[in-house]
Amino acid sequence: MSVRVVARIRPLLKHELDKDTIVTAETIDGETIPAVVRIPSPKNDAESFSFQFSSVYEQDATQQQLFDAEISPTVKQLFNGFDLSIFAHGCTGTGKTHTMRGGKSLADRGVIPRLLSAIYRRCKKIEKDTGGATQVEVALEYFEIYCDRVYDLFEPPEKRTPSGLPIRDNHGKTVVVGLTEKPCTTLKEFEQLYDQANLNRSTSATKLNAHSSRSHAILCVKITQTSESTVHVSRASCIDLAGSEDNRRTDNNKERLVESSAINKSLFVLAQCVEAMNKKQNRIPYRESKMTRILSLGQNKGLTVMILNLAPTRAYHLDTLSSLNFASRTKKIEVAEVENDPILRTMVKPLAATSSIGGATIARQPLRPLTSILNANVPEPEKAKKGDKPVKAFSVYSDTRKPAARSSNLPLQNQSVRRAEGQKRAAEPSSTFASRPAKTFRTADSTSRIRNAEPAMTKASIEALIAQKVDEKLAEKALQDAGTSAPALSAELQKRLDDLEHRIDAKEEDGKSQGLQFLLMAKQHHMRGEDASALRMYQLAQPFFPGNAKLQAKMKSLEDRIRAKKEEANKHMSAPVSSTTTSAPISSLMAPLKADKKAAKPKMVYNDESDHDDEFAPLPASDHEDSYASDDSFKYKAKAARKPKKTSKKLPIFRDDADASLNPGEQTPRTSHLLKIINSRDINQIKALKGVGAKKADNIVNCLVEMNEEEVHDLETLSMLKGVGGKTVDNMRMGLTVSCGYDF
Ligand SMILES: Nc1ncnc2c1ncn2[C@@H]1O[C@H](COP(=O)(O)OP(=O)(O)OP(=O)(O)O)[C@@H](O)[C@H]1O
Fold first, then answer.
1. How far does Cα 52 stand from its chain's mean position?
2. Pairing relation of β-strands 24-26 and 167-170?
3. Contacts (Cβ under 8 Å, ≥6 apart) of 729
4. Residue with the larger pLDDT of the pair 16 and 531
5. Is the pLDDT of residue 161 over 70?
6. Alpha carbon of 733 to those of 203, 653, 686: distances in Å?
7. Is 91 known as a binding-site position?
8. For the stretch 12-32, what's the b/e string if a residue is b when 16 or more beta carbons lie within 10 angstroms of its beta carbon?
């Protein structure tokens, strides 16, 4: 089924005049509920465009009306195991935050507090109805995406690391690493947590000048229902998207331009994803911004409601048109309505499933159209006939416009439009508030009413799209000016990366996809000249492709190159200090090396050409498998290689190794404690270690995440992580001696 898109026109603000109102709601013949938004052409007031939605809420619509009609019925589905996404879209100042968060008074409360209130009511009911046999737990995550960086809103701004929290694909699911999950048992508790978190957001806003309106805020409510035999997990995600902004019409300084650019870029990528899904393309570019990656519209196999917020006045004319175009495209995304399977508490095997996709451990798929998703729960939507053109989910009508009359009913001269709508709707069951089925989502997609509508691309909408592109270009430029852009890649290399990424997408369910992810990351590190990280990634990829000769050669070449660099650096270090001496930073030279053969080994000259060979160019699947299975001579020796050598050279010496009272493999309590902290992957705990700043902690967590399930078992390995080194490990341990009171 499609994303349900409803439009909401906010009331006039104090400084806005009634005569400037250009956005109106209209009903379709025979309906009582408005479902059409009408707006004049920016070029010619006599022409107007109409956009049809599932519902349109007019200026006087209350928070309660919106919630009761659109959100309330989804709560039941949420408890039936469906995931729910509600997001507010629209340009700045159109009422997104008002819709989602709302005001403090009971009547003004927005979608989020009302949803939580409904959830807690239902929790109580379930517990009562089952006589306590089913327990329901609610937990919250709340974060914002600001300038394409993720920040935990449950953490005060001063605890943030500049680079934000990393996001990772964990078994096919996009997760934000290190996010606080707050159990929350009552509505009162929720209100406290939510208000406090919003304070975090607005405090930053004050500091950064309009920060809050420039980030996407995402609240995830996790509901876990535990009965004697099953655990059922479902999630509601409430997203207050940042408002797009036309940079040509603002006096943005550079900083604001960068923020604005990041917003526009992420919204632009969102629009591209929507476009790609509409066209049923295999590759959805959702990885290109964090917001789309986390939001993952097409991955969300549940219910999705998009509330398009609109300002009624002329001042927002182009922005409103652009939003209307976007929302109309979104309406066409088909989302598989698949409930999360319960998990047997014994964890032996999943319950007989109603869908083929696993429950709480559900592996999210890359965005893809419904046609490629096995959906066991929902009757197949009406299939487009072969050869049919892609259906546009919205209609743009151009007709002579009457003097603006803000009426809910179509003016007489629009009868032609009405007729057209009426004809299209004739075959469909009528849909009104009163006759709406209890289930929020009418299975007969409202877009189907206008299946035959002429896809129209008017001059104005083209202009709006061009304006969007201009914004995008400005965004890119601003980001480059701010020095945040990655080094440019050659077209050929970029193509290879794209190919590799494409293969990863295509093989998401293949066991090798994780290995391919590592290869991709390795290649990216490699191209940025980060040899040590590249090698680490190749090593992580290696177990997925045992015995692959090419991979082995690649790692060997990198090791030689790193060793050569290291020797070079040592030379510089032992040479008299000269002001012109430059040596590679030692952290970049750190790498897990295989057992040092002989110091006398001739230096390898790094051959850039050979490095950019086409070993990772797409191979036919079978070729690929074969090539990685053909050579079993290579053994993954990273661990063994890291055993400290007895050498006169100054290598990190850790006390565990020197402590004669310890058996081999045994660790002191301090070391175990340190490793426990590291393996917790908790950025705050790691950051608190002596000598570890925010950046280093971030690096460590990134490395650990990239190691996936693998843990750091000894200090040697720890010292090999990017940006760590022996000295840092010593510092960490010394810090623990002081703060934890260990004797040794
Ligand atoms: N339905 C409504 N009823 C009353 N006031 C509203 C309504 N919608 C929006 N407003 C008011 O309009 C103003 C802008 O709304 P809001 O801050 O929610 O916009 P926004 O889209 O979230 O903006 P931004 O993207 O900048 O955060 C606020 O003063 C808000 O109180």
1. 29
2. unpaired
3. 652, 654, 674, 715, 718, 719
4. 16
5. yes
6. 36, 12, 12
7. yes
8. eeeebeeeebbbbbbbbbebe
For 384-404, the DSSP string reads PPTTPPPPPS-----EEPPSP
What CATH number has the domain spanning 4-332+391-467?
Answer: 3.40.850.10
Report the distance separating Cα 78 and Cα 237, nearest Å.
11
CATH 3.40.850.10, the chain: domain bounds: 4-332+391-467
* H helix and E strand count, the chain: 24, 16
Residue the block writes with tokens 């193509």: 495
Q: Within 6 Å (CB) of ligand 1, which residues are found? A: 10-11, 13, 90, 92-98, 213, 242-243, 309
Q: Is the pLDDT of residue 119 over 90?
A: yes
pTM, entire model: 0.51
Report the Cα 376 to chain-centroid distance in Å. Answer: 26
- Is the pLDDT at 612 greater than 60, yes or no? no
Find the mean pLDDT for residues 280-309. 76
**CA proximity to 96, closest of 294, 269, 216, 241:** 241
Structure tokens, 605: 């000259």
- Please report, as a single letter, which amino acid is at residue 104: K
Residues of the chain within CATH 1.10.150.280 domain(s) are: 655-744
Please give the pLDDT value at position 641.
34
460, 321 contact by CB (below 8 A): yes
ipTM entry:
0.98
Q: What is the pLDDT of residues 36-68, one digit of tens each?
A: 899 998 888 888 888 888 899 999 999 999 999
C-alpha 710 – ligand 1 centre gap (Å): 47
| DSSP string covering 196-249 | HHHHHHHHHHHHHTS-GGGEEEEEEEEEEEE-SSEEEEEEEEEEEPPPP--GGG
Judge whether 518 and 545 are in contact, CB under 8 Å: no
The 3 state secondary structure assigned to 408-463 is CCCCHHHHHHHHHHHHHHHCCCCCCCCCCCCCCCCCCCHHHHHCCCCCCCCHHHHH
Ligand 1 pocket test target in 9, 10, 66 with most atoms within 8 Å of CB: 10
Residue to substitute in 23, 60, 96, 98 for testing ligand 1 pocket (most ligand atoms within 8 angstroms of CB): 98
Distance 94 CA to ligand 1 centre (A): 5
Residues 6+ apart with CB under 8 A from 76: 122, 438
Residues 6+ apart with CB under 8 A from 599: none
**CA–CA separation, 586 and 566 (whole Å):** 8
- Torsion angle of the four alpha carbons 626, 632, 634, 640, in this order, in degrees rounded to the nearest 10: 130
Rounded distance from Cα 97 to ligand 1 centre (Å): 6
- More reliable by pLDDT, 427 or 231: 231
Q: Give the 3-state secondary structure of 134-192.
A: CEEEEEEEEEEEECCEEEECCCCHHHCCCCCECEEEECCEEEECCCCCEECCCHHHHHH
Q: In this predicted structure, what is the pLDDT of residue 308?
A: 92
For domain 655-744, is the CATH number 1.10.150.280? yes
pLDDT digits (tens, 9 = 90+) for 328-369: 766 555 444 445 555 544 433 333 332 322 333 333 222 222
Distance, CA of 589 to CA of 576 (rounded, Å): 21
- Tokens 């930073």 belong to which residue? 585
Tens of pLDDT along 673-723?
A: 888 888 888 887 888 888 888 788 878 877 777 666 677 888 888 887 877
Residue 741 known to bind ligand: no
- Amino acid 476: pLDDT: 55
Name the residue at shortest CA distance from atom 31 of ligand 1.
98
- Tell me, in angstroms, the distance from the centre of ligand 1 to residue 578's CA: 61
How far is it, in rounded angstroms, from Cα 23 to Cα 7? 11
Q: Output the CA torsion 534→539→545→548 (10° steps).
A: 80
